[in-house]
């Protein structure tokens, strides 16, 4: 955990001062201009470039903006500004450059080009255990980190009990941090970073290590401090991102592929990257054969059926019967982009006898005025001999479909409802 008021520039990417300045309310607290950082894929070559740069007096290859063999941009031309009350979500696939960008913001690594200006006190929770001295106790580490954040001993004294209580580490606070579990370290790290009320808070994926109770507590705390803080939040947890972020950057191989305040749109693009079109038969006892599955009334775009919000959902299913005497029990499930089930359609409980001559059965699953919010969904199918017993077939990703709507929202349902003004008493 570090704090600094740094202004690394293209010419001299170094922190300029360690004294946090008082900030005004509407001031930009984080300003990032054309920030770039490159790495080398091969350690030997990287060391060789380092020696060459040192000899020529050009630390970090500043004169050469081009990549040398085996180098790549981990972060390329990133620009943004953040004020108090704004929370920027940094999302993207593994290796997209999110943590590298955070580490530059926190002064852990220097950029190769560009400028970062941060005003005020910076609290950061970046790498698990980073900033802690493992041989010191939790309490001693609170004082160390508080001092690094720019607080006086008196100010830390006033906060220390709150921090320990928030981290729920009363029993273990005098134990060396090296004996803490990973969850305990995150608790302590977040408690120090957030309870000291920093102007800027930088949080990496580490929160994922905490148990659900603590994560919920952290988000409650973030809600409390957000009006007075600028937050940068890296996560792969899109529901969390959509809950707390009001600005977003979708990173892809170091560059900002999407940037702005349309958080839902960025999340949609993020999910699109991971969608595949392969249906997956998990179980099949051979009694039935799926012949056709089709969304009726849907328009096909890029091989994906599209429905508009509020359309009827009509799924047509046709099976060939190999060996069944009664119509089985069908369960159609709809999953959202996070693979959370959002709806289930169960077939009727009545059991119809099958005429031996029947070689095919067809079904229509119909739901009027389907109000799923915009985005991609997939359909799964479970078939049992009777009410959820004796499985016959289970298919994941039977088909995908996309709901179209003008408004991006993250909850799965966007319901049409009447807000009626009652009175102003
Ligand atoms: N010290 C380093 N030396 C060389 N390459 C590095 C170094 N640190 C990071 N990289 C590379 O930079 C790229 C971006 O890594 P980074 O950790 O920023 O990704 P990320 O978006 O945070 O990924 P994840 O979601 O997996 O945490 C990756 O290709 C990674 O291998």
UniProtKB/TrEMBL annotation:
Residues 7-24 have a biased composition (Low complexity). Pfam families: ABC_tran (PF00005). Residues 1-24 are annotated as: Disordered. InterPro entries: AAA+_ATPase (IPR003593), ABC_transporter-like_ATP-bd (IPR003439), ABC_transporter-like_CS (IPR017871), ABC_transpr_TagH-like (IPR015860), Bact_Polysacc_Export_ATP-bd (IPR050683), P-loop_NTPase (IPR027417). Residues 30-278 form the ABC transporter domain. SUPFAM superfamilies: P-loop containing nucleoside triphosphate hydrolases. Signal peptide: none annotated. Gene3D superfamilies: P-loop containing nucleotide triphosphate hydrolases (3.40.50.300). Keywords: ATP-binding, Nucleotide-binding, Transport. SMART domains: AAA. GO terms for molecular function: ATP binding. It comes from the Bacteria. Belongs to the ABC transporter superfamily. This is ABC transporter ATP-binding protein. It comes from Aequorivita echinoideorum.
């Amino acid at each position: 955990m570090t704090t600094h008021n740094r202004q690394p520039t293209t010419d001299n990417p170094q922190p300029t001062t360690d004294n946090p300045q008082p900030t005004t309310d509407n001031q930009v607290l984080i300003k990032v201009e054309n920030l770039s950082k490159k790495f080398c894929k091969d350690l030997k070559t990287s060391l060789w470039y380092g020696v060459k740069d040192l000899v020529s007096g050009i630390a970090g290859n500043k004169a050469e903006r081009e990549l040398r063999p085996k180098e790549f941009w981990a972060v390329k031309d990133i620009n943004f500004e953040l004020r108090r009350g704004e929370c920027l979500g940094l999302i993207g696939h593994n290796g997209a450059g999110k943590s590298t960008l955070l580490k530059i913001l926190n002064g852990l690594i220097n950029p190769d080009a560009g400028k970062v200006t941060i005003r005020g006190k910076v609290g950061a929770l970046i790498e698990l255990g980073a900033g802690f001295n493992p041989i010191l106790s939790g309490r001693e580490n609170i004082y160390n980190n508080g001092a690094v954040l720019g607080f006086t001993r008196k100010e830390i004294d006033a906060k220390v009990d709150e921090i320990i209580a928030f981290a729920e580490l009363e029993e273990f606070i005098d134990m060396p941090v090296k004996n803490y579990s990973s969850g305990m370290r995150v608790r302590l790290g977040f408690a120090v970073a957030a309870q000291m009320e920093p102007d800027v808070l930088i949080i990496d994926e580490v929160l994922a290590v905490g148990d659900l109770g603590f994560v919920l507590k952290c988000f409650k705390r973030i809600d409390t401090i957000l009006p007075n803080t600028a937050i940068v939040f890296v996560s792969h947890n899109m529901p969390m991102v959509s809950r707390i972020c009001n600005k977003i950057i979708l990173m892809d191989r170091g560059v900002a592929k999407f940037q702005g305040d349309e958080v839902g749109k960025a999340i949609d693009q993020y999910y699109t990257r991971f969608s595949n079109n392969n249906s997956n038969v998990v179980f099949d006892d051979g009694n039935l054969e799926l012949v056709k599955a089709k969304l009726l009334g849907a328009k096909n775009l890029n091989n994906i059926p599209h429905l508009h919000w509020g359309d009827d959902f009509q799924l047509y299913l046709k099976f060939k019967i190999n060996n069944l005497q009664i119509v089985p029990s069908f369960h159609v499930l709809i999953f959202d982009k996070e693979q959370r089930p959002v709806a289930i359609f169960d077939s009727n409980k009545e059991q119809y006898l099958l005429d031996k001559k029947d070689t095919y059965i067809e079904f229509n699953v119909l739901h009027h005025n389907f109000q799923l919010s915009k985005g991609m969904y997939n359909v799964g199918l479970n078939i049992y001999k009777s009410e959820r017993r004796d499985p016959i077939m289970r298919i994941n990703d039977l088909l995908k479909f996309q709901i179209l709507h003008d408004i991006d929202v993250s909850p799965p349902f966007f319901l049409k409802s009447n807000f009626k003004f009652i009175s102003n008493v």
